[in-house]
Amino acid sequence: MSLIKLVNLPSFGDERGGLIAIESDQSIPFQIKRLYYIFGTQSGVSRGFHAHHSLKQIAVCVKGSCRMILDDGQNREQVWLDTPNKGLLIGDLVWREMHDFSDDCVLLVLASEHYDEADYIRDYDEFIRFAYDDTTK
Ligand code: T46
């Protein structure tokens, strides 16, 4: 099964322009507790390089584009986020990296939990231990 789970966000654009609506438990499969956005990323800079113990997120480029890599310890897959109606669902225990941000990229992320630094796994070897050891999940 692919690691790349895309959600087609409902679009209500018309002759006046675009409009995309996102609602908890409807177009996305969780309650949104937090959102944040990443913008103004410097040329050549990559971000991420971590996993989460328990967090679901939807990432969508509302402007511009970036390349996301997801890795579950067995498979590594990539996807371009390049349109505002394409959401990427990122689940628990998935290593993520973000590369090739366009100058105008605004990456919106909707999260199922409040911010908690203790939920991050920022070391790849530690991530692999968690990903392969069911007893620590
Ligand atoms: C993720 C990817 C897609 C907060 O204080 N609150 C927050 O809600 C967030 C997201 C970050 N921070 C602080 C923590 C760090 O001191 O902001 C700083 C930068 O965060 P970080 O280096 O984790 O940023 P990214 O772009 O590497 O990762 C972010 C999210 O943190 C992460 O959960 O999945 O975007």
Summarize the structure.
The protein is mainly beta.
List the secondary-structure elements in sequence, H or E.
EEEEEEEEEEH
| CATH superfamily label | Jelly Rolls
CATH architecture: Sandwich
Radius of gyration: 15 Å
Taking the alpha carbons of the first and last residues, their distance comes to: 20 Å
Which parts are unreliable, with pLDDT below 50 for 5 consecutive residues or more? none
Number of domains: 1
Describe the largest sheet.
Answer: 5 strands, antiparallel
CATH topology: Jelly Rolls
Shape by Cα distribution: globular
Number of strands: 10
Structural class: mainly beta
Bound molecules: dTDP-4-keto-6-deoxyglucose
* Strand order within the widest beta sheet: 1-7-4-9-2
Q: Estimate the strand proportion.
A: 35-45%
Please provide a written account of the structure:
By secondary structure, this protein is mostly beta strands. It has a single domain (5-9, 24-136), classed as Jelly Rolls (Sandwich), CATH 2.60.120. It has one helix spanning 124-132, and strands at residues 5-8, 34-39, 47-52, 57-63, 66-71, 76-81, 86-90, 95-99, 106-111, 120-121. The strands form two sheets. It has a five-stranded antiparallel beta sheet, with no helix packed on it. Strands 6-5-8-3-10 form a five-stranded antiparallel beta sheet. Strand 5 (66-71) and strand 6 form a beta hairpin. The model has no long low-confidence stretch (mean pLDDT 95). The structure holds dTDP-4-keto-6-deoxyglucose. Residues 34, 36, 38, 47-48, 57, 59, 96, 109, 115 line the site of dTDP-4-keto-6-deoxyglucose (T46). DTDP-4-keto-6-deoxyglucose (T46) is lined by residues 34, 36, 38, 47-48, 57, 59, 96, 109, 115.
